[in-house]
Structure to design on (92 residues):
């Protein structure tokens, strides 16, 4: 009987270890998801800061971001032209 008791204890220990590892994996997955969510939120804040900075500084030629602001303005103008072309095509 001692043999079976030892086997039973080993199986019980292995099962307990597997359950603990599964719980740890679930917790790590949950935490990684939370980290990813926070990183996405930070990216959104950066985007909002960038838009705010652009709106405040887009016409300032002395801005450290003047070149990038100029590129955005050119792209915005190009978008408007493309949208106008789309409207013209839809009218026909």
């Amino acid at each position: 009987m001692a043999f079976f008791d030892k086997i039973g204890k080993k199986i019980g220990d292995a099962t307990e270890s597997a359950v603990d590892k599964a719980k740890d994996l679930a917790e790590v997955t949950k935490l990684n998801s939370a980290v990813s969510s926070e990183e996405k939120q930070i990216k959104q804040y950066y985007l909002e800061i960038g838009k705010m900075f652009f709106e405040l500084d887009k016409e300032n030629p002395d801005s450290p971001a003047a070149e990038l602001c100029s590129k955005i303005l050119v792209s915005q103008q190009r978008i408007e032209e493309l949208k106008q072309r789309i409207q013209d095509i839809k009218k026909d």
